[in-house]
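pinging the channel bc i need a second pair of eyes. not urgent but kinda urgent?? the chain im working w is below, pasted from the shared doc
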Amino acid sequence: MSLPDTPVLLWSDLEQHYAQLEMRAVDPDNIYDFLLDWSELEKSVAETGTFLQLAVDLNTADSAAFERLSVFYRVIQPKITIANAALRRKAVAVTNPKLPKEANLVLRRMQTDETVYRKENVPLEAEESELKAEYSRMTGNQVVEFEGRHLTIPEIQRLLQEPDRNARERAWRAWQQNRLQLAPELDALFLKLLSTRRLMAKNAGMRSYRELIWFKYHRYDYTPQNCYEFQDSVESEVVPFASALLDQHRKAMGIDRLQPWDFYWKAPVDPYGRHALQPFKTVEELENGIERAFIALDPELGCQFAEISRGFADLCSRPNKMSHAYCASFPKRQMPFVLENVVGTEDDVQVTLHEFGHAFHGYASMRSQPLIWNHFSATEFVEVPSQAMEVLALPLLGKTIGGFYSDSELGRVYETQISRVVHLMTWVAFMDSIQHWIYAEASDDVTIEEIDEKAAELISRFMPQTDWTTFPRELRKCWHYHHIFTAPFYYVEYALSWLGALQLWQQSLSDREKTLSNYRSSIELGDSRSVPELFHAAGPSLRLTVTPFAQ
């Protein structure tokens, strides 16, 4: 797969455009035109950044691509950040600006950004970006040696669905051995990230990095205390449900206790000894089946999928490719880009539905919202379009209508999907709680050993069903996860969004056409409305009740 041709802009290409914008006089009558022109410049910058990041993630062994990305982070991005700060000050200084409704939140977010901006943090932000790119490089190069084969991480995880318990154990042990070999390097990398993030918070006059991130993420609609309340609710309401599901799982397997290879929430083995579903063999088969499902769900979405998948997607798994999945964007061309690592599993089908839900969100918002700052949406809603696709498309995955599964297989998919959401909630609680602890509760001189110990403690709190007694080292490194390194504090959103997605699914059972109409309307709003307003647009009965954060 080749990336879409994209001009790689240098500072020499950009400097004059920022200078021209900075020299412009801005008043209440022309501020919107100023924002539009600034937005067009930012779209060009964003396309360069997306292209350079994808070039690395699609081939982590490409040292030249890594160096180009590093130059962008070290040399170009800091200058852009400083230039944008000057333009932002011009915008927020305007009194009584005449703006359309969709620009009001943009200006509010800019005012928040101005509150926490510190020039001394610019090189630190560049350093953080480089460290995150290093994480992608390190993990993208992971290859597990297993019984004479060299497997990518998605490929070895697939083997955890094998009915043969001994085969699963061998695969799990090989995977964990690989993880533990890399662990010291990831530990060292995280300590650098932690130090950098804490220094940024200190420079901004914040008590903790958590406080800084609340401003950076524009979290106006809920507080850290709400997160603690969420964690407590998961412990009291969801953990018992998850435990009951896994007790059924254990009994069906006929074993006394669940070992780590007996259940992995991202690739669960069938407890009745049935082979894992293999819905497709090639990426082409996957794309064709998904396209038919989307066409049956909504012909327009089917057309969008076809357009995106033919030139703006790379779905196959291969060595030296980042093992995570995500959706990026080329905003000037108004096109999303989907990166995945499919290997032929049921989970691949769900991930594809999920990531193209993001793609539909980007596709719609980039076309309906002229300002780049309104593309996609606030993080607390951004997973609703993706997670909703996972469930809205479920009834359309049957073989009789061109999908992947027989009727009995589709029943298994439904069970797996519901179980996955339950277990995801417990994982979200773990991911959220450990980051609150690291960034707002742990001592300034916290050690890796203390983080390891806290991780084991929190897994016992939120995911106590698996017996890790003989694997303490493996358990203690469970916090080595993509978002911890690259997207700090981005995880509670998955739980909040599932609350919305499940309500959409429920509504679709009685009125699918109306549900899809609401879905399309909400994603066109992008980030031009508050989180509660977006939930309401997706479905008038959807509710997100939280405590506003005073900023």
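so The first helix runs from residue 11 to 23. and Residues 55 and 279 are 29 Å apart (CA to CA). — does that match what u expected or am i reading it wrong
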